[in-house]
Amino acid sequence: MCGIAGIVNGRLAPEEMQMALARMQQAMLHRGPDDGGSRVFPDQQAGLCARRLAILDLENGNQPIANEDETVFAVLNGEIYNHQSLCRTLRAHGHRFRGHSDTEVVLHLYELDGMDFLDQLRGMFALAIYDTRRRRLVLARDGAGMKPLYVARTPQGFLFASEARALFASGLVQPEPDLSAMDVYLAAGFVPAKMSAFRGVDKLLPGQYMVVDSTGESGGQFWQIRFRPSDPKRGDADYAEELDALLTESVRAHLAADTPVGAFVSGGWDSSLTATLAAKAIGRDLKTFSVVFPDDGDADESRYSRQMARHLGTSHHEIEFRASLLPDLLPKLARHLEEPCSHLPTGVMWILASLGARHVKCVLSGEGADELFGGYERFRTNYPYVLRRFAPRALARALAAQCGPNVLRRGLRFFGAPEERIADAEILRVFTPFDKRLLLRPEFCADGADLQPVLICPELLRSCQDRLQRRLGFEQTKRLSENILFNTDKMSMAHSLEVRMPFLDRSVMEFALGLPSRLKVRRGREKVILSALARRHLPPEIAARRKQGLAYPLQVWSRPPLREFARELLLGSNGPFNSTFLEQHLPRGRPAARWLPVGCLVMLQGWWNEFIESRVQPGPEISSTAF
Questions:
Q1: 109-140 residue pLDDT tens
Q2: Which tens digit of pLDDT belongs to each residue from 190-206?
Q3: Rounded distance, CA 100 to CA 121, Å?
Q4: Quick check: pTM over 0.85?
Q5: E strands, 72-135, where?
Q6: Which one in 81, 238, 250, 453 has a CA-CA gap of 20 to 30 Å to 389?
Q7: Count of domains in the chain?
Q8: How many other β-carbons are positioned within 10 Å of the β-carbon of residue 144?
Q9: Is the peptide bond before 384 cis (omega within 30 degrees of 0)?
Q10: Is residue 390 domain-resident?
Q11: Which of 236, 330, 328, 312 lies closest to 275 in space, CA to CA?
Q12: Same domain, 487 and 573
């Protein structure tokens, strides 16, 4: 796991290029505290750099890595789980290796197969290859979207980096707010790729590649989420057996490391299955980590996580999370998220990652199972969609335009949505366009794309055979990659911890895309197919559990002391909000108005204070203990 960055087609002197790369590298120190390297190509006005968290090939895996004649160079953030089998193929074709790192395999695979190399990679990654023979930069991001990659175009060159802060550290990019992205964030609670929160900075889409050379930019998608018809001849037991084999093999592959690997365990099915399969593969040396919620019995799952740890015989570690920690955490969360993100467990993930990083460099997680196999309770609820068939949509839209800012307005927008994929997004909407005009000062109102960038694309929509697939398509391509995985990457890497997700292995994802919907949600039960694996591998009490999300309560911002903290932050800061309106609607000594998701506003203001109000300066001094 690493942080990567680079500049091509630059207009900098060699020493300026080297200094810019050094600053970019330093800004990502937390992503790779073990080693750093850079390479400048003076005659081509290009350069690469990387910070390294050493997990594979501890002695020979430093980046950038070059081929035998030093004409092609690669940097990689992530892990390629099939790199050993790819290496054997490459050796058979005469390629020679200095070590056994997956980055070196990626480099030689590009040499052998050109741009077709991407389709052979199984893993989580953001990568860059610079081909000096063609003066060509190749960028790519994994299909699930587990690793981010930012790009910026400036008069001094084309820049890319694992983090936006590295772009700012170059001195060539300034952190300025993108009002259209703010508009989308207030509607959806996150900023989806290709957008970023910063003007002039974009993110690659999951499964996207980009080629930059002297002629300009080109690219496309090397992998996309598409549903496919299931086999009507296959029985439920056959599907369960296949998933069991695929997940077992995926966990085994995700354990490949030259350092110890641990596991997050919540006591739910997903993390318990990955931990169980990991423990079977490596024995009783597994370390497990979980969060305890002493202030909230409904959210606390420690009884079940402890039961799983005892069952597996792991070395189990716990850490407490209290909502009262959030005021002190907010600047750190905003700094490392780099973009506003109102995904609820952000603070929880920060605390959990800090615990894991004290013991290991790498952990397994059950992330992605809910989105692949229908694990959220809302997937069992179809009656709103049934009612939509009978609702007069034009009337619903007209009434929504007349309602004040409340839950009813959002409900009417759901019923008035002109098509189902818009309704899918409306049901999870945060603020309506009307709300945003009240919340924001006039100069920050964009009247932008609203929810349009988070709708599933027409090609994915055409592959859906029923409502559940369409809703899962929205979850997988938007909420999962651009919200949940975004949060997981940023919070874990802030602590130099790699999180591996076996459910998001390409083999498991492709299996899920061809799985009948009856094996995802049926008769009021979520993740039907995983129940068979749970009964097979987990203790009966764990196997009988229903879904419980990792989060602190939704009402947390309406309770003291966070209620007072939110008022002070939002009313006492310079920023984009209409303070007069907020003064009237923020919670005081009574329950908050239900329509106002205060946490979404707090995260936006925290981001604003960290990046816009303070105007991040190039070349920040960052110490290894600052995180």
A1: 999 999 999 999 999 999 999 999 999 999 99
A2: 999 999 999 999 999 99
A3: 16
A4: yes
A5: 72-80, 123-131
A6: 453
A7: 3
A8: 27
A9: no
A10: no
A11: 312
A12: no
